[in-house]
Design a protein that fits this description.
Elements lengths: L8 E5 L11 H13 L4 E5 L1 H10 L4 E4 L15 H10 L3 E5 L9 H10 L3 E5 L3 H9 L4 E3 L16 H8 L5 E3 L6 H9 L4 E4 L1 H4 L1 H18 L5 E6 L3 E8 L2 E9 L6 H11 L9 E6 L2 E3 L2 E3 L14 H9 L3 E5 H12 L7 E6 L3 E7 L2 E2 L26 H10 L6 H9 L3 H25 L3 E5 H4 L4 H7 L12 E3 L6 H11 L3
Parallel strand pairs: 1-2, 1-8, 2-3, 3-4, 4-5, 5-6, 6-7, 7-8, 9-12, 12-15, 16-19, 19-20
Antiparallel strand pairs: 9-10, 10-11, 13-14, 16-17, 17-18
Helix pairs in contact: 1-2, 2-3, 3-4, 10-11, 12-18, 14-15, 15-17
């Protein structure tokens, strides 16, 4: 085939949810035939067996890929030369591969040469303009925006139209791909200069499309008659206050937490800081570290934030603000926020925040578990003298291990060095990820959630979630957790607790 064969066209990605009810050759070939009959000029298909099955069913060009979870690299898309050979043999016309600048098992130029040797075309899945420049220098035929937003941090909501336009200045053969979920977005990608536009989940993943509609309808019902709530998240170094309505942050502010002042002073300071908002909210929701039971607050780890035991948080907050209040553990509040308005998509989840420490929350049968439920960072192993899990996993531990290795570096520095291929840093990050993977597997066996949502500065650090997934690569599909990144980032706690305060009327 020639590159012009797919110019000005729609490409449909026929990739079912792994392990889902449509993950079979029968459905993939059905998707492929239906897409072609409706006007698709090419297909993108994952796995050698599905490429071979589709090749027998359709005559249009096929972009073939193989996805793997590796223990020593965050690269997942067609990482090996053997994958190239197998896809070519199965009938792929174009072979796509991860072309990001990350630790990888095979250089991009070697993959290009292997594809060319089999008289196939190449597609470089890129995350940024520099990826595209390097790929084009290596001789690729097409560059795609496939990995924009997927190499670290929270996943964006919208397609990267700006990157499409930037790539178009380098080559006319740009394939737009990633988060294109509506005809308007596809048209915008075409107008930005893409020679072809890939649409996947919006067409072939019933589970994803259903979840989008479910979330939109849930938000609409939540917003209908919703009041504005003051959400407060009191942390060890800073406190966030936000006006929240219908799961959306209207306005927010961050003030320092005067650790030695105590909770009475913190509340008084918040009343003063939010005085300009006093007429704009009717209720208050407060998220805090530690244990909250019957409105009373106690520290589980005084090193994080020291407070008087059994402090009457709800009673004092209601008195100083003059409005009804409720309170909840911060990770549990974030779990509810992600369940209702974020990555949980209204399905039962376990939420893990991996940062300076480890916290969590559980939504089971649509109900948030309170009390001690979800304090995963404080669990211990079978040995009674083992330290809590977070002491051998979280950001504090990562920095301590770096110092033991002879490097004065915080967790962010360690991650940066790991991504550059420094073995000592990679070993520390991998050990942390291995322990989180074990925790996630145990959580799956205990609660069987639809997803485990991962948040926090460590959990969302570039490459970390890929490493956790890699440590689970040998787990049978039914036992393997579905790990997804959190979407609400730093607002998850205030959004979650504000929603609970709203419905606590």
């Amino acid at each position: 085939m020639q590159r012009q064969d797919i110019a000005n066209s729609l490409i449909v990605s026929c990739q079912p949810v792994p392990g889902g009810p449509m993950d079979s050759a029968q459905f993939v070939t059905g998707f492929a035939r239906a897409a072609v009959e409706a006007g698709a000029k090419a297909l993108r298909i994952e796995s050698v067996s599905y490429v071979a099955a589709a090749r027998l069913a359709v005559r249009v060009p096929i972009i073939g890929i193989v996805k793997r979870d590796l223990t020593d690299s965050p690269v997942r898309i067609t990482p090996y030369l053997a994958d190239v050979e197998a896809l070519a043999e199965a009938g792929a016309d174009i072979i796509a591969f991860d072309a990001t600048d990350r630790v990888r098992p095979v250089p991009v130029d070697a993959l290009v040469k292997a594809v060319k040797a089999r008289n196939k075309l190449t597609m470089a899945d890129c995350s940024c303009l520099d990826d595209a420049r390097r790929a084009l220098a290596a001789g690729v035929d097409f560059v795609g925006t496939t990995l924009s937003g997927y190499v670290g941090g929270p996943e964006p909501e919208d397609p990267d139209i700006a990157l499409i336009a930037q790539m178009r200045t380098l080559t006319p053969y740009v394939i737009a791909e990633g988060r294109i979920r509506s005809p308007d977005q596809a048209a915008a990608a075409a107008r930005a200069g893409a020679c072809a536009v890939v649409v996947g989940s919006a067409i072939t993943r019933t589970e994803h499309v259903t979840s989008w509609f479910h979330q939109a309808i849930s938000e609409a019902y939540a917003a209908r008659g919703a009041q504005t709530v003051l959400g407060i998240d009191i942390g060890g170094t800073k406190t966030m206050a936000a006006l929240v309505s219908g799961g959306k942050v209207i306005e927010d502010m961050i003030v320092p937490t005067a650790r030695e002042a105590g909770p009475d002073a913190w509340l008084a300071s918040l009343v003063q800081s939010t005085s300009a908002w006093s007429s704009r909210f009717s209720r208050i929701g407060i998220a805090v570290t530690g244990l909250v039971e019957d409105g009373r607050w106690s520290a589980l780890n005084p090193a994080t934030l020291g407070i008087p035991d059994d402090y009457p948080l709800v009673e004092r907050a209601s008195a100083v603000f003059g409005k009804p209040a409720c309170a909840l553990n911060d990770a549990q509040a974030a779990a509810w926020g992600e369940y209702k308005f974020g990555a949980g998509q209204g399905r039962d989840i376990v939420f893990l925040t991996i940062s300076t420490g480890i916290g969590g929350g559980i939504v089971c049968n649509g109900r948030l578990l309170s009390g001690l439920a979800g304090h995963f960072g404080l669990i211990r192993g079978l040995s009674e003298d083992r330290a809590p899990l977070e002491d051998g996993t979280s950001g504090r531990w990562i920095a301590t291990q770096a110092l033991k290795a002879g490097f004065k570096a915080d967790a962010a520095d360690v991650f940066g060095r790991a991504m550059k291929g420094e073995a000592w840093a990679g070993a520390i990050v991998s050990q942390s990820a291995s322990r989180v993977a074990t925790l996630c597997r145990d959580i799956q066996m205990m609660f069987d959630p639809k997803s485990i949502v991962i948040g926090g500065s460590i959990g969302l650090a570039e490459g970390y979630l890929d490493r956790v997934r890699a440590h689970l690569s040998d787990v049978p599909p039914r036992l393997s957790p579905d790990l997804v990144p959190a979407k609400l980032a730093g607002h998850a706690g205030v959004i979650g607790v504000a929603d609970l305060a709203e419905w606590a009327r």
